[in-house]
Amino acid sequence: MSEGGRKGGEYRYHDDTLRILHVDDSQAFLEMTETYLDREISDADVTAVTRPTEAVDLLSERSFDCLVSDYEMPGTDGLELLERVRETHPNLPFLLYTGKGSESIASRAVNAGVTGYLQKGGPEQYERLANRVTHAAAEYRATLESERYSAALRGLGYPTYVVNSRGRFSYVNGAFADLTGYDPERLVGSEPSLVKTEASAERADEALRSVVSSSGPDVEQFEIEIRTADDEIVPCQDHIVPLPFETEYRGCTGILRDITAQHRRREKLARKNKRLEYFISAAAHDLRNSLMTAQAAVPPARPAADSECFDQLEDAHDRLERILDELLTVAHKGTDTAVTESVDLDEAAGAAWESVDSDAADLSVED
Length: 367
Fold this sequence. Notes:
This protein has helices at 27-40, 52-61, 78-88, 103-112, 123-156, 174-180, 184-187, 198-212, 260-301, 307-333, 345-354; strands at residues 3-7, 10-13, 18-23, 44-49, 66-69, 72-73, 76-77, 94-98, 116-119, 160-164, 169-172, 220-227, 233-242, 251-258. It is α/β, with parallel strands linked by helices.
């Protein structure tokens, strides 16, 4: 069994075992309850103690996901135990499960901050207890997980936000407020459309539907535009992930990365490519004019000169024309338009050999 980091006196584990601490002065009742909880909850690990002081000691040594306590016990009662537990574990689910029930006790329990109040009974009450333990523990673990995510994101320093299940900001950090130009008080409770363009809000909704679906990815990354309080547009990369939940969607959290510099580099590169395209087009135009002049001069001069030399000259003109065509294609459409194909090595080497002065050397091509 491996232990996670310690936070507020609580050790967190990395497996899925649900750890339950049960306090009751009746050993027989403890054993009966453990039998039912083991049957109703998969991967349940029930620790049973008969004295409240034992429970307090165990909480300082081990991690638990839920505490179930009787009300009336020798020397103390369940509400007094709750008060001691809350001193070191303010958020640990605490269920009061007692055979001594009354409206007065129930009212005191609710005012004291118990997670749940149930009266002991038959099998149906054990089933209710198991359901309450499962739901309370799941919410507790989700809260702890969210706190760890928030702590990690705060350390990164990125603009961070949390959107609740109603689609409104429930948390933003200082970096998010600085990016948008709004005060955190203005942001919390508002819809994301306050700071996102309409297209970006739609893109975020689509990404959220993807990550909460059973077949979707765990995280989505996409570009959005943030509209600041000064009505400026800031391009950002949005990383969105749902908050941990069992059956009921609880919201999502996300971080933003300002990609203004990246957009500027793209625009600068596009401008350079545009200028390069213009230069290549202009140069190719001039070269093609000169090539056409040279090609036009070949036929009249051929009868008075070495025919073989003019054959080589025409081949060179043809190659130059193909190069110009390819150069213009790349300039206008990019390198993605290039097509590769298999060629015969002997033929390719022979064609290249004919374009150079090779009087003092011989070409030999091997497979």
